[in-house]
Amino acid sequence: MMMNKYRLINWLYYEIKPATPRSLQLTLRRLLTSFRRIRNRDIWPINPQAGTPPAGWTGWPHHRQFALVLTHDVDSAKGEDRCLDLMKIDQDAGFRSAFYFVPGSVRKTASVVPELKRNGFEVGVHGLFHDGKLFRSRRKFRTRALLINQFLAKWGAVGFRGDCMHRELDWIHDLNILYDASTFDVDPFEPQPTGMTTIFPFIVESRDTGKRYIELPYTLPQDFTLFVIMREKSINIWKNKLDWIAAKGGMAQLITHPDYMNFDSARLAVDEYPVAFYREFLAYIKQKYGGQFWPALPSEMAQYWNSLDSDSRVSPPIIK
Does any domain span residue 319? Predict the structure, then answer.
């Protein structure tokens, strides 16, 4: 369960957010992030404890050194308009990725989703309305889960990610999914800042039914955090964290957002960063680690984790 203090803070934030100017939202988040960055400097962006592999771990397919999972959260109409441009960037670099859509507010899924899937990309569900209220109560979640399951079926999707990275892992068993991707190894800047302290997938088992899904924590800092909130001017943090994950043989999972990428070299909006940063990171992966990583869609990662024997796929111990 979300800790009480975080539940209260999140409730207040998402109640006032619609009436708060975007520039003020960013200013407040930057102040809070600066404080948290200093306080968590010993564990972010790298928490040394997260690099321990599961007991009995035998490695990735094809004897690759580490795994790579690229994902994109589409939070708004602006992001939808940019999905196919982002797909092309991944294609040109030789990658496939997964796009997560907010089903309660999407406009173009009838055209975008089939095009992504035709090109070998994956589609998942990202909350329901992106309003920070999905996990307000058990009753609310059960009601919304019925609608989320309808969209999962409609899109042929097997993966879910909570909006704003909110989660109650035991409640998520209400969804008809193979995997969830609503957690992280370490990210003290999120509304629920408690990390899973692992760069490997793990199993989440229902306390009541024994039903299971695979949890895929993201392990590279989100683009919005680095380039919009922290206003980093290089991809050095991405590169350094990837190098550490590769050395530990873990799963490098990245979340980026087409909503906040500037594709046309025009003047950056207050919440945008140059898409060149993402292109540069893809080039870095290929140039330094070509042939050394297993490139997997999230569904492929979850299927692989399910195929392992029980001792090799539990990290941390099964959450019940």
Answer: no
